[in-house]
Every structure is written in C-alpha cells, then in structure tokens.
Amino acid sequence: MADRIFAGVLLVVSLAYAVIAFTAISAPFQYDPLGPESWPRLLAIVAIVCLLIILWKPDTDSLGVTGRTWFRLAATIILLVAYAELYEPLGFIVSTILFGTTMAAMLGAGILRSAAFGLAAGIAGYLLCVMLLDLNLPAGEIFETLFEPSSPAASEGES
To answer: What residues contact 44, with CB distance under 8 A and at least 6 apart?
Structure first.
C-alpha cells in the first residue's frame, strides 16, 4: 500500500511538472537536435509511465526498513541541507571534506578512512570541476576575507 500512496503522490507532482514542461518551457534557440525544452518533456513522460507501472503492480505489505535505516536517511537529509548552507561560506573544498568525512563515518568507515575519503573527494572534486570542466567554484567567504589583501586606502588611513 505504501508504494501506491508514494506513486500516487508523485504522479500528481509529475503531472503538474508535465503541464509546466509542455506549456511554459520554451527556448529562444536550439543548440542540439532535441532542443532544451525536449528534456523536461521526456523526463515528465518517463516519470508518468514509471509511476503508472508502480500503481498497477501488486502491493508489498511493508517497506521492510529498519529504524536504523530511517535514522540514516534523516541524517543524510540533514547533512545535505548543512552542506548546501555551508557551501558558500566555507567554499567547495572545506564543505565537501566535511560532508564526505561525515557521510563515510556514518556509513561505517573508520575515522582515518572517512577523513581520507573526505579529503580526496574535496580536493579531487575541486580539481576535476575547475581544471577539466572549467567551472567556477566558491573558495569560501571566510577564506576570502582572511586572505584578502588590504586596500591601499585602508593602509593610508591607518598610518
């Protein structure tokens, strides 16, 4: 029964998304054969078909999820929200190191392995995004203010 409720709620959301995808999204130019408005339409159609299949199949009696798994799911959501909130002030590298280390520790890795994973994810992810993908990632507002060179006007005013 739970999967049918879940599918029913998501079907309503997907139908609303489909209405928006087919009526409100339009691009002034197309840089690929499908065009940018095609992907939301395809996603809406695939989601609706998948949710109709879930609604049609027989129910399972229960989800079979333990309390520990529910706790991990809730903790993951809290960690993702914290990651999003710390992304700008701490920057990509530090916030990714904290998130990766905490997630790895929560999933059962030891402290050293968790720290190594978080460090590797933060630094390798930064290098991948900046050097290969040419993305502009935040360095962190805290570090920008700490390492910001003092302006000449401020120096003259102090002397």
So the answer is: 14, 17, 18, 21, 22
Amino acid at 130: V
> What is the rounded CA–CA span in Å between residue 137 and residue 141?
12
Whether this model's pTM surpasses 0.70: no
SS3 category, 36 = coil
DSSP character for 24? T
Q: 73-110: b or e for each residue (b if 16 or more CB lie within 10 Å)?
A: eeeeeeeeeebeebbeebbbbbbbbbbbbbbbbeeebe
For range 64-81, the mean pLDDT: 90
pLDDT of residue 10: 92
Average pLDDT, the chain: 85
Classify residue 91 as left (phi > 0), alpha (psi -120 to 50) or beta: left
CB-based burial, 132-147: b 16+ in 10 Å, e otherwise? eeeeeeeebeeeeeee
